[in-house]
Amino acid sequence: MADKHHHHDDAHAPIEEPQGPPGEDELLEVALRELLVERGVLSAGAVDQQIDVIESRNPALGAQVVARAWTDPAFHQALLSNPLDTLEKAFQLPMSGPVPVDLKVLENTPAVHNVVVCTLCSCYPRMLLGPPPAWYRASAYRSRVVREPRAVLREFGLELPDSVEVRVSDSTADMRYLVLPRRPEGTDGWSLEALSGLVTRDCMIGTAVPRDPSIEAHGLTTCEDAGDEP
Amino acid sequence: MRTVTGRKVNDLGGLDGAAIDRHETPKTLFEQRVDALVMLLIHPEIGAFKVDALRRMVEQNSVEDYATLGYYQKWVRAVRDLLIEQEVLTSEEIRGKLVEVRARFAEGGSER
């Protein structure tokens, strides 16, 4: 099977899994799932239900959090000092997953831009953004962003002035990070909905900044995600 | 498993790397199911294993497998090994079930 799988160090190889007839690993998933149901470890349908739960968390939720933080000073303060409790109260959503995981909100300022990675695996603020994109899990991002973050950000279309310090935070199993991007100029009086529409997933990872509505897209200060997770 | 540099296979920070491939496609059903399976099994309600154990298994891949196997391929194999290690299932049971599942798929038309 190994010849069917793409090498991640090939810049042109798609990251996603190969498609086609069921491979050994697909058969293995079916076998394990069926055995676990037969043994009473899992209830029938538990996996499908869990897929729905996972899909219910997506970057739109994170974008709402950011928009609220931009417009509500008390929430902003509480979010930075006590993220998980604040989010549970404000959004009525459980923020602790299957295992306790802490969350830290990293606020971008005119002087500091934050970027998040997990160099060891793929730890990610799933409770707010859903599962991570393929590039976040892949070796190129994980290896390079801690050493040459500006070059990596440039590949995402984000060119930061030298005066801005770039801080890369390496996530762990126990600590996840959400980047709180800067609110673009010219958005005074915007609704929460309109503001959250500026906040893409990549803005909250730090590989993009929100689109500045006063500037026509010219590729430097704006950045669009390559694609969205479903 | 350590490489000559003393790093484990998953310890990539600071190494050389290729251009970032930002290509994304929706998750396949296989990927979604493996993801869901792991989330269920690490949940304290079931507690088949802890997420750290999953990572330990993934980190035990050879350099070659770590680089070439898909993310969720590594996960599903780690789940298999952990379920055996934690005596939730036996390798014989899994082998037997795989024969059954493979036969069903070969006949075609079977629900995955």
UniProtKB/TrEMBL annotation, chain A:
Highest rank taxon of the organism: Bacteria
Lineage, highest ranks first: Bacteria, Pseudomonadati, Pseudomonadota, Gammaproteobacteria, Chromatiales
Record's keyword annotation contains Glycosyltransferase: no
SUPFAM superfamilies: Nitrile hydratase alpha chain
Segments forming domain Nitrile hydratase alpha/Thiocyanate hydrolase gamma: 27-208
Metal-binding listed as a keyword: yes
Region (Disordered): 1-24
Protein name, UniProt field: Nitrile hydratase
